[in-house]
Amino acid sequence: MDSGFGFPMLPSAVIAEYLIQFGIAPVANLRPEDISKPQPDLLRTVLSRFFDSFVDTAGDGEDGQLGFGDLEGLDNPEHHAEAIRVMRLHRKSQAFLESIHFKDLTLTDLLRPTQHRVVQVLSALINFLLYRDEKISLLQPIVRDTPNYHEHAMELKARIAQLHKEIADHELKEQMEEPMAQQLEADVNALQQKVQVYNKQQLALRAKAAAINDKKEGIHRKITQADFELTKHAQENSKLRSKLVKSPEKVQRALEEKKSVRAKLKESEKIAMQSVQEKTATLELLNKAHEKLGKQYSKIQDVQDQLAAAKTVEKEVKAHKAKLNDERASVKSFDTQIVEWQRKGYLSDFYLCILLVLLKYCMFLSGSYSFPYIAT
Q: Taking the model in full, what pTM does it have?
């Protein structure tokens, strides 16, 4: 036994007497022969009674039931229940005996104990209990001078039990709300995907609007050129009228020149009518594009409302999780962290783009064909 302390080896009769005296004997009429020829469950029963009577195991979570950690790795957990309990008892016993410098307890000592090993382990336990009783007798005067110690201890235990119950209730509530939180997260992801689709559609509409603006500028240049031609023909007509004289030859020549000018004017008028028709077609195209932009704007606005509602619900979920974390921290029992649901996807310059398109369209309808730069 590798230890810095010594445990006197006690006779079997003394061991049986002390086990009965301390109330940890497996049977009420334990005999020395039961120590000399130990049964397989002797040490397990004594150690279980020792932990139940002298060691506080309220906070270790081992209440005899199989936990989820033990169940999830087994195909048939009910077939391994006793083995898991023995492993727990061995782990707990080994930790305690190591704390009193008895370091060589093995699983064989619990399953197939020998007389020598039983005497060693029980001698260590009884020496510890005798040492404990000696220290408690030394502390009795101090305990007697401290009033209401037991009531305060009972209040603390009751408070600890209440906190454990609250923690269990919060964990149950968290498990019940987990599907709703997952559904909300799925809804938020779906809305973010919709926002990405609408962003792509918005970029396509911007490209179409830029093409329409380019075509509109070309039409405006053609209209300006037609106005310039009309003005030029009017000036030429006025010059021809000023050159008219009373002589028939000159009048005839002037009439012929006037006819030619009129023919040219008709041709220019025809060109101008074609330009006006093209302008009308362009206006109809712009109106259709404006209607499509309005529909897309209303759809995106609906999506933004849904996003705002989803973010509000997400904030409420995060606030509830933060409250759960605060309550966990108050009892210092759990270190679990709830993964923070990241919020992504914002429409950055959407409203500015729509306002710019609407302003240019209103200026076009009012008759101002120039589109000045609007500072943003």
A: 0.38
